Amino acid sequence: MANIKLFLVPVCIWTILFNTSNATRSRPPPKFPAILVFGDSTVDSGNNNDIDTLFKANFRPYGKSYPGHTPTGRFSNGRLIPDFLASALNIKKAVPPFLKPNFSDHELVTGVSFASSGSGYDDETNAVFQVISFPKQIDMFRNYTARLKSLVGERKAKRIIGGALVIISTGTNDISTFKMDTNDTRYQDFLLNKVQSFTKQLYDLGCRSMIVAGLPPIGCLPIQMTNKQQPPSRRRCLHNQNLYSKAYNQKLVNTLLQVQTKLSGSKIVYADIYRPLIHMIHHPRKYGFVETNKGCCGTGFVETGPLCNPTTPTCRKPSRFLFWDAVHPSQSTYWYLSKYLKKTALSKFL
User: Fold this and answer.
1) Torsion of CA 249, 339, 166, 23, to 10 degrees
2) Residue 66 CB contacts under 8 Å (≥ 6 apart), including other chains
3) What is the pLDDT of residue 82?
């Protein structure tokens, strides 16, 4: 009996070590220590909840597919691209908003979103919608940096920020709402100058790894088709608006290459949103979608924000809809986009 006990001791120790080793191998350390997010409603995880604006999504049916069926302020039925990327990179399961009351030290250290729904590169856009402008988002980042230094010390804070993955996603509100003149591309150049300025400011504040998203096929957003008064049975993507998006995106690619050459030690990567989205629209069944030209909420033609509210009916299966409301993609769409970005944009870092 004593011999059996002596035999079992090393077996148990070996089993524990083997399982611990497997667990370590199954969850490798994250490539990025934190994720920092700037932009509009495509990446705002709830900052607008705490400001005076109509651009809120902290009520049902938003969050219908989020864990706990909880409306968080995300303009979708569930998670956004930063949430999926943070999870895939083993950073965290979801990216909290910087203005979230009393978030934990761990949430602070591993990154937050400074984004504000309705915002853009253009200050006129931000003023009209009364949201957090990009300069103010950078000010919030400065406050974040100060809090991080007080928590972990200046040296470690510098390492975290220098190693963090920075995501920037905005521009659609600027162009789709006010300034889309398909015969005049000067406004594109104005926005691209803003891109250069803001990426330089983030670089000066210590950021080195940035992903900057291009425009989606704006002409395929349900609200844009509705604005052109297309009858429901004949709704089609607006070709000229999509050409405008493509032209801007090509300029953005060139701009980011120029910016990176000027900022020593930086890696600034273009995130192509247009190509995967247009592929989903043209080949919906490959992704499990049955509806691509209207949202799941209400009629799907105009409802977003206050019009998509607890009294508004929604489709039974949001995963079959490319759009959640008349402007924003569904969680399923964001999931496919995050997979595409991991293979393309993120692969340039990994």
Assistant:
1) -170
2) 72, 74, 77, 78, 79, 331
3) 98
- Count H helices and E strands in the chain, helices first: 12, 6
Nearest to 268 by CA among 217, 202, 205: 202
Residue 30 pLDDT class (50, 70, 90 cuts): confident
Kindly name the residue from 83, 133, 266, 328 that is annotated as catalytic: 328
The residue whose two tokens read 């192509």 is 272
Tokens in use for 334?
């964001």
Among candidates 96, 109, 98, which has minimal Cα distance to 30?
Answer: 109
Please answer whether residues 176 and 218 qualify as being in contact, where contact means their C-beta atoms are separated by less than 8 angstroms: yes
Contact predicate 37/112, CB 8 Å? yes
Answer yes or no: 282 catalytic.
no
By DSSP bridging, strand 321-323 and strand 165-169 are unpaired
The separation between CA 36 and the C-alpha centre of its own chain, rounded to angstroms, equals: 10
Domain ranges of the chain: 32-274+330-348
Residues 6 or more apart whose Cβ sits within 8 Å of residue 1 = none
Q: Is 152 left (phi over 0), alpha (psi -120 to 50) or beta?
A: alpha
- Token representation of residue 244: 């405008």
Mean pLDDT of the chain: 92
- Name the band, by pLDDT with cuts 50, 70 and 90, for residue 11: very low
DSSP assignment of 163-219 = HPEEEEE--HHHIIIII--TT--HHHHHHHHHHHHHHHHHHHTT--EEEEE----GG
d(CA 133, CA 171): 12
Contact status, residue 87 vs residue 67, Cβ threshold 8 Å: no
Catalytic entry in 325, 330, 332, 338: 325
The answer to whether residue 338 is catalytic is no
The residue type of 208 is: R
**Would the pLDDT of 9 be above 60?**
no
Residue 258 CA to residue 32 CA, distance in Å, equals 24
Instruction: Name residue 230's amino acid.
Output: Q
CATH class of 32-274+330-348: alpha beta
Pick the catalytic residue from 40, 41, 76, 119. Answer: 41
Task: Determine contact, residues 336/305, Cβ cutoff 8 Å.
Answer: no
pTM of the entire predicted model: 0.92
Question: Does 328 qualify as catalytic in the annotation?
Answer: yes
